[in-house]
């Protein structure tokens, strides 16, 4: 590079008066490293070939070789060396003659980004010595033979996560000789949950296998009374996914020097996973119309989304909470941060974070949708990431809530977390980041408030148990569900729960107590609501039960409202209205049945096939109001997956996906997707129509990639029917 071009280059740098070098945001950009760095004017007869010279560097980077085996990185589809920090790895250097430790002086240089600096950890020179200390950069010779040496290299436990360039430097009397730039010797360094000194250390091997190495997970959805599950392919080891995840940190403009810190990485990632305010990975849509994109329910995993974003650099359309959480989980596991996907049933989206969700009723006791701003999501998915929290007092490390779904802004951006689960449980919501918001998601109370004509508000009913009723995740080593509600909150009504609430209020969570409001509920009449198991496209029965425990006769003016809702609890349309007067005899129970016809709901049905029933009853003799609400999920038909013959890695085989249309209408614009990490890349196929009661059969030929127990996941999507899934566990034999 001549003198003039380098000065032009310098002039173009975006310098400002505050910093001597520009911000170092990009793992991709490089600086030029001279192969011969002269100490002065070179003597005429200088020939670099007279000195010790590196002929070749061998990285032991094949999946079956020592480095990837010992570092648990053998599953990555990536030809470069991938190691975990704070753990030794080996390389071999071949010279043009035997290495003489007495006179030859060599060292290694690890560089990352365009402006490497030693004090920022982006330029790391390592002298070859005789000892290596745990958790610190160092290198020692463990074997010498002919012209080769084998080195054991230790990286620091706080080292930056990313892709480093490696050079070997040799000292000569006239200058430094370096190896030529060679991308084949680039090294990826990841977090190390197996290393006790790493901030993400997890001490249980079964948990590490699940939360770091498992590339398929389960998303729990539906609602509390009707938990449904579906598989999700994380695919963190698939080709180009690691590079795509590193690109996300570049996109979020996280300084390279901050990339050794899991707290910072989680915080910026929770913003960049969604496209609000930073053109991030996924554009959310809760409208039920998904033009120019893929319906959230059609995705079967994270790989397609991340690869599309990595190549187009534009938000991928569309996602809802489980899609954001699925992609976030892939990102975390890929970088080596233990992570799991969480579902909170009856999740409060409390617009003003006062732990109180207000449902306003009109004169007749119907919910007033214009006034009611808060909503209860049937379920909401977020992630937990495992790490120490040196920025908080002792005891708040471990699982941290991070959420990539854009709900509310935090420090001016749509992001959430990391918030310590332990801090949320004990009400210590003063500890960063966003603990009050998460506390409200799992702890709010629902207030049914009637607006009088003169503008006063009368609280008619308070439900303290519905929000955050059930918090679950996938079990370790299986597909079952584990109830982790107790990790977020004490038992409802216990002394500890009261204390945690008082603590949260002390730390600034706004809470209007029930005592502040004139609220005398009707205690001698109970009302509840039941729905029969409902299958999509069929009629089903709902029942309202009253129990009059008093010695009085009452009449109750009752209003039943059936709504088609998004899973976020937001109403799309009311499809059933019914008012009646119930006579309640003393000390007795009475039931009222109603049939919900498929013709009433099919035309407006949304993709999650979710209904929300509100029942309000006014006891005419006392003027008091009883209120109950319930979400009902329809049973959606599933896809059937079958394999033909035995499955052997590398040998062609075929799989058949079948679906029978159960609706009383023809399905149009049908798209099928099929994928399985380690088995086959996502395949999509479009079908024009499936007439009612007819069966579609799709045969896919493929070559299974690697042996082991794997999972195939399929989805069907059409305008009239979404959220149709199927899955199959397959054992792929070794060839």
Automatic annotation (TrEMBL):
It holds the Pfam family Transglut_N. It is found in: Cytoplasm; Secreted. Its EC number is 2.3.2.13. SUPFAM superfamilies: Cysteine proteinases (SSF54001), E set domains (SSF81296), Transglutaminase, two C-terminal domains (SSF49309). GO terms for molecular function: metal ion binding; protein-glutamine gamma-glutamyltransferase activity. InterPro entries: Ig-like_fold, Ig_E-set, Papain-like_cys_pep_sf, Transglutaminase, Transglutaminase-like, Transglutaminase-like_sf, Transglutaminase_animal, Transglutaminase_AS. Binds 1 Ca(2+) ion per subunit. It is an enzyme of class 2 (transferase). Residues 1-26 are annotated as: Disordered. It catalyses: L-glutaminyl-[protein] + L-lysyl-[protein] = [protein]-L-lysyl-N(6)-5-L-glutamyl-[protein] + NH4(+). The keyword ATP-binding does not apply. Its cofactor is Ca(2+). GO terms for cellular component: cytoplasm; extracellular region. Keywords: Acetylation, Acyltransferase, Blood coagulation, Calcium, Cytoplasm, Hemostasis, Metal-binding, Secreted, Transferase, Zymogen. Residues 313-406 form the Transglutaminase-like domain. Ca(2+) binds at residues 443, 445, 492, 497. The active site is at 321, 380, 403. One of its GO terms (biological process) is blood coagulation, fibrin clot formation. Tetramer of two A chains (F13A1) and two B (F13B) chains. Belongs to the transglutaminase superfamily. Transglutaminase family. Factor XIII is activated by thrombin and calcium ion to a transglutaminase that catalyzes the formation of gamma-glutamyl-epsilon-lysine cross-links between fibrin chains, thus stabilizing the fibrin clot. Also cross-link alpha-2-plasmin inhibitor, or fibronectin, to the alpha chains of fibrin. This is Coagulation factor XIII A chain. The lineage of its organism: Eukaryota, Metazoa, Chordata, Craniata, Vertebrata. The gene is F13a1.
């Amino acid at each position: 590079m001549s003198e003039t071009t380098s000065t032009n280059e310098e002039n173009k740098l975006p310098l400002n008066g505050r910093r001597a070098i520009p911000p170092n945001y990009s793992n991709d950009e490089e600086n030029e490293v001279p192969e011969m760095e002269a100490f002065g004017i070179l003597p005429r007869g200088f020939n670099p070939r007279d000195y010790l010279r590196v002929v070749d560097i061998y990285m032991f980077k094949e999946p079956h070789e020592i480095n990837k085996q010992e570092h648990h990185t053998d599953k990555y589809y990536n030809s470069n060396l991938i190691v975990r920090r704070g753990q030794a790895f080996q390389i071999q250097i071949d010279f043009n003659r035997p290495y003489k430790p007495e006179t030859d002086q060599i060292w290694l240089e690890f560089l990352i980004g365009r402006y490497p600096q030693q004090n920022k950890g982006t330029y790391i020179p390592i002298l070859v010595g005789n000892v290596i200390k745990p958790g610190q950069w160092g290198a020692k010779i463990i074997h010498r033979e002919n012209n080769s040496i084998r080195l054991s290299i230790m990286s620091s436990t706080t080292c930056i996560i990313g892709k480093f360039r490696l050079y070997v430097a040799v000292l000569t009397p006239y200058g430094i000789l370096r190896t030529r730039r060679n991308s084949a010797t680039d090294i990826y360094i990841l977090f190390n949950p197996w290393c006790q000194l790493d901030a993400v250390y997890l001490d249980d091997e079964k948990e590490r296998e699940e939360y770091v190495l498992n590339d398929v997970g389960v998303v729990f959805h539906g609602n509390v009374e009707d938990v449904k599950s579906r598989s999700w392919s994380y695919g963190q080891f698939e080709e180009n996914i690691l590079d795509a995840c590193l690109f996300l940190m570049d996109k979020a403009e996280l300084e390279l020097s901050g990339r050794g810190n899991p707290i910072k990485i989680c915080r910026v990632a929770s913003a960049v996973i969604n496209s609000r305010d930073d053109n991030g990975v996924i554009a959310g849509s809760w409208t039920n119309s998904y033009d120019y994109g893929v319906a959230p329910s059609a995705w079967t995993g994270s790989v397609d989304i991340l690869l599309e974003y990595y190549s187009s650099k534009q938000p991928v359309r569309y996602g809802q909470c489980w899609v954001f959480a699925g992609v976030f989980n892939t990102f975390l596991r890929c970088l080596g941060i233990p992570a799991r996907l969480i579902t909170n049933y009856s999740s409060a989206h409390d617009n003003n974070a006062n732990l109180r969700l207000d449902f306003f009723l009109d004169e007749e006791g119907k919910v007033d949708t214009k006034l009611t701003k808060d909503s209860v999501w049937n379920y909401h998915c977020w992630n937990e990431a495992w790490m120490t929290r040196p920025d908080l007092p002792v005891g708040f490390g471990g699982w941290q809530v991070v959420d990539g779904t854009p709900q509310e802004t935090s420090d001016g951006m749509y992001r959430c977390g990391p918030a310590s689960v332990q801090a949320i449980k004990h009400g210590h919501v003063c500890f960063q980041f966003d603990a009050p918001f998460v506390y409200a998601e799992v702890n709010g109370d629902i207030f049914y408030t009637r607006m009088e004509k003169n503008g006063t508000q009368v609280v008619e009913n308070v439900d303290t148990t519905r929000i955050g009723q059930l918090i679950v995740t996938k079990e370790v080593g299986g597909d079952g569900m584990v109830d982790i509600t107790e990790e977020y909150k004490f038992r409802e009504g216990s002394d500890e729960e009261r204390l945690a609430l008082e603590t949260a209020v002390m730390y600034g969570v706004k809470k209007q107590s029930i005592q502040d409001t004139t609220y005398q509920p009707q205690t001698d009449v109970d009302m509840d609501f039941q729905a029969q198991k409902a299958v999509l496209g069929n009629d089903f029965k709902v029942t309202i039960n009253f129990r009059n425990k008093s010695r009085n006769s009452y009449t109750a003016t009752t209003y039943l409202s059936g709504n088609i809702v998004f899973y976020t609890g937001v109403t799309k349309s009311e499809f059933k209205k019914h008012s009646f007067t119930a006579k309640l005899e003393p000390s007795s129970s009475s039931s009222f049945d109603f049939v919900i016809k498929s013709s009433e709901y099919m035309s407006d049905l949304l993709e999650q096939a979710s209904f929300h029933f509100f029942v309000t009853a006014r006891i005419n003799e006392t003027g008091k109001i009883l209120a109950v609400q319930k979400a009902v999920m329809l049973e959606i038909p599933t896809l059937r997956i079958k394999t033909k013959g035995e499955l052997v890695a590398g040998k062609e085989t075929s799989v058949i996906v079948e679906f029978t249309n159960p609706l009383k209408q023809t399905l149009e614009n049908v798209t099928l997707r099929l994928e399985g990490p380690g088995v086959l890349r996502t395949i999509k196929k479009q079908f024009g129509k499936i007439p009612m009661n007819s069966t579609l059969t799709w045969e896919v030929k493929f070559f299974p990639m690697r042996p082991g127990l794997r999972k195939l996941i399929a989805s069907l999507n059409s305008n009239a029917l979404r959220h149709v899934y199927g899955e199959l566990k397959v054992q792929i034999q070794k060839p």
